[in-house]
């Protein structure tokens, strides 16, 4: 049996109490959308307007229409509930991002290793070509040899 990887969740064990079935990928995508929204200025503006309206209504409305008197206990409860759901959703989104980053890092490392291997291969090939070119007669070398041969033939005695 192989040892479990620490960067992946454990397999689900069977229990006597049935658990609700959900798609972890869909749930993760929804939680990421929520976490992204919670980190926007729009969310802060909405929450600020909500709290100001709540406080103004419960402080300034006629006593018969107020549903949460001054210490605003119900508002505190709602904000605590929102925070208790927001924190795990944000953590779940961060874990999913960490998993994507880890996969991207592994792919980058593999790509880098292939690039290094390709570079080393091309370096060896270029070195081999340079060595082979040193043994090949270049145009200038052939031209100088032919000129030397022509001079030698011109300087040669016509007598046999």
Automatic annotation (TrEMBL):
Coiled coil feature spans: none
Source domain of life: Bacteria
Transmembrane portions of the chain: 43-60, 72-92
Keyword Cell membrane: no
Family annotation (Pfam families): DUF1003 (PF06210)
InterPro entries: DUF1003 (IPR010406)
Keyword Mitochondrion: no
Alphabetical keyword list: Membrane, Transmembrane, Transmembrane helix
Name of protein: DUF1003 domain-containing protein
Organism: Actinomadura rubteroloni
Phylogenetic lineage: Bacteria, Bacillati, Actinomycetota, Actinomycetes, Streptosporangiales
């Amino acid at each position: 049996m192989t040892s479990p990887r620490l960067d992946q969740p454990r397999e689900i064990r069977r229990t006597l109490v049935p658990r609700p079935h959900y798609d972890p990928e869909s749930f993760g995508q929804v939680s990421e959308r929520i976490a992204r929204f919670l980190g926007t200025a729009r969310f802060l503006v909405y929450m600020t307007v909500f709290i100001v309206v709540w406080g103004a209504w419960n402080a300034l409305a006629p006593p018969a229409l107020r549903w949460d008197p001054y210490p605003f206990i119900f508002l505190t409860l709602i904000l605590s509930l929102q925070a208790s759901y927001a924190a795990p959703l944000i953590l779940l989104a961060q874990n999913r991002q960490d998993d994507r980053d880890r996969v991207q890092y592994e792919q980058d490392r593999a790509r880098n290793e292939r690039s290094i291997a390709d570079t080393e291969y091309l370096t060896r090939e270029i070195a081999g070509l340079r060595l082979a070119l040193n043994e090949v007669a270049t145009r200038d070398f052939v031209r100088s040899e032919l000129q030397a041969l022509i001079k030698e033939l011109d300087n040669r005695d016509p007598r046999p």
